Amino acid sequence: MQFNLKSQYRPTGDQPKAIEKLVANFDAGAQYQTLLGVTGSGKTFTMANVIARLQKPTLVISHNKTLAAQLYQEFKEFFPDSAIHYFVSYYDYYQPEAYMPASDTFIEKDAKINDLIDALRHGATASLLTRDDVIIVASVSCIYGIGDPEAYEQVAIPLKVGEPLKLRELFSRLTVLQYRRNALDPRQGEYRARENSVEIFLPAGDDKLAIDATGGRIASLALMRTDRQDAAHMRPVPAFKVFPAKHFVTPQAKLKVALANIRSELAAQLERFRKEGKPLEAERLEQRTNFDLEMLEHTGTTNGIENYSRHLSFREPGSAPFTLVDYFRHRFGDNFLTVIDESHATVPQLRGMEAGDRARKETLVEYGFRLPSAIDNRPLKWAEFSEKIRATAFVSATPSAYELAKSKPYVVEQLIRPTGVLDPNIEVRPTARQVRDVIAEVQKRAAKGERSLVMALTKRLAEDIADYLTEAGLKAEYIHSEVKTLDRPDIIKRLRQGEHDVLVGINLLREGLDIPEVSFIAILDADKEGFLRNETTLLQIIGRAARHTDGTVILYADSITDSMRRAMDETARRRAVQEQHNRAQGITPQAIQKAVRKSLLEELAPPDEAEAFLPAGPTREIVANLEREMKRAAKEMNFELAAKIRDRIRKYRSR
Fold first, then answer.
1. How far apart are alpha carbons 336 and 325 in whole angstroms?
2. What is the DSSP pairing of strand 190-194 with strand 197-201?
3. Sequence-ordered alpha helix ranges (H) in 416-481
4. HSE toward the beta carbon, residue 608, CA cutoff 13 A
5. pTM of the entire predicted model
6. How far apart are CA 251 and CA 649, in angstroms?
7. How far apart are CA 328 and CA 214, in angstroms?
8. CA–CA–CA angle 526, 527, 530 (5° rounding)
9. CB neighbours of 409 closer than 8 A, spacing ≥ 6?
């Protein structure tokens, strides 16, 4: 399968020149390049053309989950026949375990895993090992350990029509791969069996694999959506490989060796603690580790299994963990492309992850909460990451000095927008009564069906301003890092559709978001020099209004800082280049038109409960099982689940 770019548009403006330069430089052996493209110039479309020309599997990294979701949807539209995946942290909430010696406070790991995002991660790794036309859009979580790709592939179960199959052996292997048996209502990572048929609900979430093992052989294999049961929706396949339900897996033959190595490290650390006169730390470590070892021995997994990843992957102390990048290398060697989007923000994140993680882990180790090998469950260091990638494109409207120096002399500019839209006009107004002034400006735009953005300095201030704007009669909403990952694109979609007039944010609205309906941006307290008001940040915010022909940005400030001056000067320089190009080509700026696509939540949402399939089998027996589950749920006061089971019982009885 090859990358087949499909789009109603053709490269225009600066895009053809940028595409040719990028492709020629990579073909000539350039390792690093920078695409310096202004907001709205179509950098994603340019990179899609580069991918189609190079025909290389691609890892796209974004520092921002909201932007990653947008990029994922755009690449899916450009390459509808290819395997496009979304790989971000699967936690809706994550509190890592930590210990604060000063107050003798231990904080247990607390996390809420989003099953939908977990399914998307499994879909990404499975496609990497089975397809060539793969694009993974990832957050910086792609440099965190997810287990050895070689082990992940080795333990997978290959199935082929016509081959012998003993169901007991299959069930045993599925258990090793962390699948759970669920005869009543299986979900992703579970399976159920009836006589000679087995249904495996794949970790990627969308499909289940139906196996007919009549006569001790695989009579048929078929894929179907998890919300379907009838044979009309089955897609027969001649062979299929069932990958593990969890990324951290170890072949059963090697697990005993790994456990022995963990016990050996435990003994050495206990001896050290006792020599140093630390009986409390020794007792704590022994108790916690032995519990984990017992869980690993009997179930193949344990809470916090990632802390033993070095042993389970048989890595040397201090060695780099296996990450998503290693899945690319395992399958493609050096023959893949890395795109670091909004590189001015993404590169610093990639470079800083390991140091913060190490400081927390060292405290846990020193006080007996974890073995020293837990430190090797970490993000990649920047040097390690750089060693694993080859052809790399930094993409940004404001690349930092690091990217420019790294890719010199391969810096490709893209300053002209395809529709001739200019960079926005900029005004500076005093901070006195700035919120009231913002209300008046937003009301003007709302009356014309246009949208606005307001940039505050803190989360609390963003929420308060959104409430104040709502009280003033505007349809306002806020967005910041505490808003759930998959809810953020939905909020932006509602803004584009006119359900909101204005969106109030801090820095999530800064990079890359494509909102052509926005004609006005207010930057409050623009003279508060710092990370959120430096030259790069200001240029990025200003760029959000660069997709509208009447784009205007107001900086509310009582003085003009150096950052403000440089941002305004650079915007003026770019605007002058764009005006000159428009005059020379006789172009009249046209508003950028972009369809409002489904949000990621709508695109990935499971089918409506009313459409859920009803498993085949003896109705009386299934209803009896459901009634027991309903009573158990009610006894546990899980009334929502009890009501769902009650509705399922009614459907069975009405069949």
1. 10
2. antiparallel
3. 434-447, 459-471
4. 2
5. 0.78
6. 41
7. 38
8. 90
9. none
| Number of CB atoms found within 10 A of residue 363's CB | 14
Complete edge-to-edge strand list for the sheet that includes strand 235-236: 180-181, 190-194, 197-201, 207-212, 220-225, 235-236
pLDDT at residue number 620: 67
What are 79's two structure tokens? 């390459």
Q: What radius of gyration, in Å, describes the C-alpha atoms of the chain? A: 27
453, 441 Cβ separation under 8 angstroms: no
Residues 359-363 have a mean pLDDT of 91
Measured distance CA(320)–CA(322) in Å, rounded: 7
Task: Encode pLDDT of 250-277 as tens digits.
Answer: 777 788 899 999 999 999 999 999 999 9
Residue 594: how many other CB atoms lie within 10 Å: 13
Give the three-class secondary structure for 98. strand
Q: Give the integer Cα–Cα distance in Å for 279 and 270.
A: 9
For 108-141, write each residue's pLDDT tens digit: 877 676 777 888 899 999 999 999 999 999 999 9
Q: Helix 639-653 vs helix 619-635: angle between axes, to the nearest 10 degrees?
A: 160
Nearest alpha carbon to residue 393 among 145, 9, 82, 25:
25
Residues 29, 32, 38: CA angle, nearest 5 degrees: 125
- Please give the average per-residue pLDDT across 192-221, as a whole number: 90
pLDDT score, position 608: 46
Packing angle, helices 535-543 and 562-585, rounded to 10: 40
Give residue 183's identity as a one-letter amino acid code: A
What DSSP line would sit under 591-641, residue for residue? ------PPPHHHHHPPPPGGG-----S-HHHHHHHHHHHHHHHHHTT-HHH
Under DSSP, is residue 165 helix (H, G, I), strand (E, B) or coil?
coil
Q: Measure the CA angle with vertex 148, ends 146 and 149; round to 5°.
A: 95
- 66 within 8 A of 513, measured Cβ to Cβ: yes
- At 213, give phi and psi (nearest 5°): -110, 40
Cis peptide before 80 (omega within 30 of 0): no
Residues 6+ apart with CB under 8 A from 562: 529, 535
Strands 391-396 and 207-212: unpaired
Instruction: Answer for the pair 383, 351: CB distance below 8 angstroms, yes or no.
Output: no
Q: How confident is the model at residue 21 (pLDDT cuts 50, 70, 90)?
A: very high
Question: 218 by DSSP, 3-state: which?
Answer: coil
Write the DSSP symbol of residue 212: E
